[in-house]
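re: ur question from yesterday

yeah so i grabbed the chain u mentioned. its 250 aa long if i counted rite. heres the sequnce exactly as i have it in my notes:
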Amino acid sequence: MRLLARCAHGVRRGLFIVIGLCAAAGCASAPNVYGPSARYSPAMHGYVMAQNDGSDDPSVDATVLLLRDPLTGDKLSCREDVIEWRELYEDVAVDLVDDENAKTATAITMSAVFAPIVAMDPVGALVLAESLLSADGMYDSLRSDTATELLASGIALSRRKRYARSTELIERALAKDPAVGIVDKAYLSLGLGYRELGRDDRAALALTLFLKRSGVRDVDAYRDAERALSEMGRVASPRCDSMEPVELHW
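ran it thru and got these structure tokens back, copy pasting raw so excuse formatting
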């Protein structure tokens, strides 16, 4: 019981520290970060939560939450889907802002605690930094190519029209880390490469995944994917009942 009481006291004390630091540093709230509504972004080919600067697309400096079906990972591109998942993403947005505020408070606290130690023993801090750099350098020289590096090589080969090797490297990148299909144009390059190789079924699958899942900001890339699918006689995207903004219940 004493241990539980001490833990509870520690949690309360930590919360008071975070609240105090947020008051001093001006921590953000979810409505201030993500605005009053979710809206369709042509540049991201899906609904986003972000501050509105007068354009459908959020500014490059805005904090953006791209909405996805939590089960499939597909982007939400229709108003009716956003309404279904609105409450979930309102909670997610609040969590993200709270986590960012906690990170800010932790950084302030840690710098206040450890900065004097480094100042008192600068040689020890320098030795630790050099050892970490040496370990990182050895690891970099021994490891295999990362998914990001494989993807970059595949895209470069695609530009040189070496499609067979390009598609092989991009699929290897996706197998190593599926996240590269979300944060970059892996599916687009893969789909266009397969189309050049005459593998239309594989091309259509990759291009559809690009439209549904990619988180890149590039309206022209999405148009290229839709055009390629149309030329192959495939349906690019289902029609929505509406693509109007969805008000958030802050």
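noticed a couple things. Residues 2-105 form one domain. also The longest helix spans residues 79-120.
anyway ttyl
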